[in-house]
Amino acid sequence: MQPFGLSLARACLQTLGVAVIGLGVTLGGPARAQQAPANTLDAVKARGQLICGVNTGLAGFGQPDSQGVWRGFDVDYCRAVATAIFGDPNKVRYVPTTAQNRFTALQSGEVDMMARNTTWTLSRDTSLGLDFPAVNFYDGQGFMVKTSLGVKSAKELDGATICVQPGTTTEQNLSDWARANKIRFTPVVIERLEELVSAYVSGRCDAYTTDVSGLAATRSAQPKPDDHSILPEVISKEPLALGVRQGDSRFADILRWTHYLLLSAEEFGITQANVDKLGNDPRPEVQRILGKNGGLGPMLGLSDDWAVKVIKVVGNYGELFDRTLTPIGIKRGPNALWNNGGLQFSPPFR
Ligand SMILES: N[C@@H](CCC(=O)N[C@@H](CS)C(=O)NCC(=O)O)C(=O)O
Description:
About 35% of the residues lie in helices and about 15% in strands. It is an alpha/beta fold.
């Protein structure tokens, strides 16, 4: 079947027109004049507030609600880190970042950290001067089409027009995958997410490609989610990670162990509801996690009860996932704990 002949011609015109915005700029621009602090943890403590780079608006992961309060899976990592440092989840300023400007925001010191569906890759880890303390969501790239097209597999996308955002791994994976599978496609590259999604919804593109989590988020935000189908193929690995500046290892340790805390709490059955009642739990690792003995908090530059406070605010990883991502149809899959068939694994609290 070759359902995309017509749209190919239509897409060529678009490609020549407004669609190719920012094509070729794949790894963010040069750092701004603003100076990033040498020691982020000290700078955050002195400022009394964490500045967290989040998404511009991705349901379930990071977006302001109708009251303007930022909510979501990634947003709760900002709240967890602020709680670890200050004991207060509200000591955060959120800075929305696009696919294109997120790396500059971090490099320049405009934000202290990034909690924003960003894939950990070798080039970002090295030549972009970033570090990725923890993968908070294992993902992969997929495709979404209108259900009415009747397309059941990405292999049927030969000749299609595909909406894709620049500055992403998505753009690079799409061409690798198409070449390997001998699939011809016309990219419609649009920088602003909102515009890109409207282009897909209005039929300017036959398919929209991004991380499967991003597709699920966009699909859930449509008036009729069932009108959109996510195809079964997953064409890449997208380990979505928290980000800090390279060389910022004390701050990176806090982000890393905050994520591991959420995982360990799930593993040991520590929840938002019971964390206060587990003070006398006989399990030694639970005692260490909760700061009853072992002095682990101060080793991170935090208080002894940092973990209790964090779990009270965001819950364990499973609770956080269920509250933010389960409602938009995302399953645990590779984000199940290691002892439940998944990849999420915390090193020991000792
Ligand atoms: N994980 C991929 C894609 C991440 C990404 O930025 N995805 C888009 C589409 S879901 C996004 O969140 N855009 C928001 C924006 O640019 O405002 C990457 O790190 O390059």
